[in-house]
Amino acid sequence: MQEPIIALEQVSKSFGHGSKAVRAAHDISFALHPGRTLALVGESGSGKTTCARLVMREYRPDSGRILFRGKDLNAIGAAGLKEYRRAVQMIFQDPFASLNPAHTVDFILRRPLALGRPHLKGRAVDETIADLLRRVELNPGAVVRKHPHELSGGQRQRINIARTLAMGAQVIVADEPTSMLDVSVRLEVLNLLNEMKRDLGVALLYITHDLATARYVAEDILVMYAGQIVEWGDVHQVLTNPQHAYTRLLLSAVPDPEIRFDDPGARLDPRAVDAIRREARLLQDRVVEIGPNHFTRQAA
Ligand SMILES: Nc1ncnc2c1ncn2[C@@H]1O[C@H](COP(=O)(O)OP(=O)(O)OP(=O)(O)O)[C@@H](O)[C@H]1O
C-alpha cells in the first residue's frame, strides 16, 4: 500500500465547556491512501461529520496531529496549507445547495480551474472543462451553458465531482453524497467515485449511515460510536465478522449484509436500535487496540 496522503493521529475535538461539553471526536486515528476508500460509518451524532470537518481543516483539533504526506499541518506553512486546501476537496449531501444557482456550469468549473491549474489559458480552459464533463459522463455541449436548477440531482452531483477534479483533488471527502439522490442514480454516482479512485488514484473518505453503500465503494471501514472508533479494518472482514456490539447493531438493522444498498430494507430499524445500543454502551469502555488496523473487545 502507498504511503498515506492524510493521517489523523489521536485527534480529539470537543464542543462546549464543562458539564455541557460534547466529545464529538475522541482519540481518532486513521489514514487515507491514494486509490483507496475509507468508509466512516455510524449513526447520526456519532462524530462522522466532525471528522470530515477536521480533515477539511474547518475545525482545528483540540489535541492530536493531522499529517499531510507525513508532515504535520501545523508545520507546513502557508504554501503547504494552500496546497492542502487544493488537494483536499469535499462533496456534500445536497448537490444543489453546494452550487451557486446564479452561475452556469461553465463558470462553476472555470473558477476552480483558474485556482487549481493557473497555467491553463484560452482554448485549453474550454477543452479542460469539456474533458472534465466527459469524465463525469455528462455531455459538455448539453450542460455547459446550463444553470444548476436546469439539471437533475444526479447531474448536479456530477458537476460537484467535476469541480473537485478541476481543483486538482487528490483527496475527496464525500459526506452522504447519494442520500438526497433518487435511488436510480445513486449507483451511477457511486460508480463515478469508484472510477475517480481507480483511474486517478484519488483517496476517498466516504461518510455514510449505509453499510451497503460502504461495502460497495470502500476497501476499509471505520465504525464510530459516540465520538470514538469502535472497530476498524477491511470492509468485508468487519462486515462479515463484526467484533464490536455496535457494529453488530448497525448490521442487525440490515437483515442481509449482502443486501443491495438501494433496497429499502437496508435502513436502520429504529425499533431494534435501542436495546442493542444499550449493549454497545456497556461494551464501549472495553474496546482495546489489538493491532494497527483492528480494534476489538477485551476478553471479559
Ligand atoms: N459545531 C458544533 N457545536 C456543538 N456541538 C456539535 C457541533 N458539531 C457537532 N456537534 C455535536 O457533536 C456530536 C457529533 O456530531 P457529528 O455531526 O460529527 O455527527 P455525525 O455522525 O456526522 O451525525 P450526522 O450523521 O447526523 O451528520 C453530536 O453530538 C453533535 O451534536
UniProtKB/TrEMBL annotation:
It comes from Microvirga arsenatis. It is found in: Cell inner membrane. This is ATP-binding cassette domain-containing protein. Coiled coil: none annotated. CDD domains: ABC_NikE_OppD_transporters. InterPro entries: AAA+_ATPase, ABC_transp_ATP-bind, ABC_transporter-like_ATP-bd, ABC_transporter-like_CS, Oligopep_ABC_C, P-loop_NTPase. PROSITE patterns: ABC_TRANSPORTER_1 (PS00211), ABC_TRANSPORTER_2 (PS50893). Transmembrane segments: none annotated. Keywords: ATP-binding, Nucleotide-binding, Transport. It comes from the Bacteria. Pfam families: ABC_tran (PF00005), oligo_HPY (PF08352). Belongs to the ABC transporter superfamily. One of its GO terms (molecular function) is ATP binding. Residues 6-251 form the ABC transporter domain. It is a peripheral membrane protein.
